[in-house]
Specification:
The chain has 160 residues and is an alpha+beta fold. The protein has 4 helices and 5 strands, in the order βααβββαβα. Helices cover 33% and strands 24% of the residues. It is globular, with a radius of gyration of 16 Å.
């Protein structure tokens, strides 16, 4: 049986918290390595109360591989509406992460497929996310999946 066939994508449950937090800490550590001027060490990346609230709203999903939590996706629906923009509804991926021990096995693809399905069910116009400019592996992955650049964030650091 192919590994991809053993991956189950499901809405998160209370008992998943410890494993989800572990994955979120892995991502936080990547961000700290890339941008220690912005990201800092913290004891808890995803507070339990926030995790429970996301479960309640149905906006946090896990990927289970061989009975272990191997990935996490949190999302929200956004309505983009202004005088200068066409009104659009999108699923915005707030966070997507795969445990470092499970990367390269198709889990991220399955999570994105789930997000795409959710967007279709919610009658949304698309799926959007942001990615750290230093995360070239993720950029390549998203582009391979079909994402295109929508905008680019720039910064001018303030020097004291």
């Amino acid at each position: 049986m192919d590994f991809m066939e053993k991956i189950i994508i499901r809405f998160a449950e209370k008992d998943d918290y410890e494993n989800v937090e572990k994955i979120m800490k892995q991502v936080q550590n990547l961000h700290i390595n890339w941008r220690p001027d912005i990201y800092k060490e913290c004891e808890t990346v995803l507070p339990f109360e926030l995790f429970l609230a996301e479960i309640e709203k149905g906006t946090i999903v896990v990927a289970e591989a061989d009975g272990k939590i191997a990935g996490v996706l949190s999302f929200m629906q956004r309505r983009i509406e202004s005088v200068t923009h066409v009104t659009r509804k999108v699923v915005f991926i707030d966070s997507i992460a795969v445990d470092e021990n499970f990367r390269g096995r198709g889990i991220g693809t399955k999570l994105l497929d789930f997000a795409k399905d959710i967007a279709q069910k919610m009658n949304c116009d698309g799926v959007e996310l942001q990615v750290n400019a230093k995360n070239s592996a993720a950029m390549e992955f998203y582009k391979k999946f079909g994402f295109t650049e929508k905008s680019v964030n720039l910064e001018l650091l303030s020097y004291k």
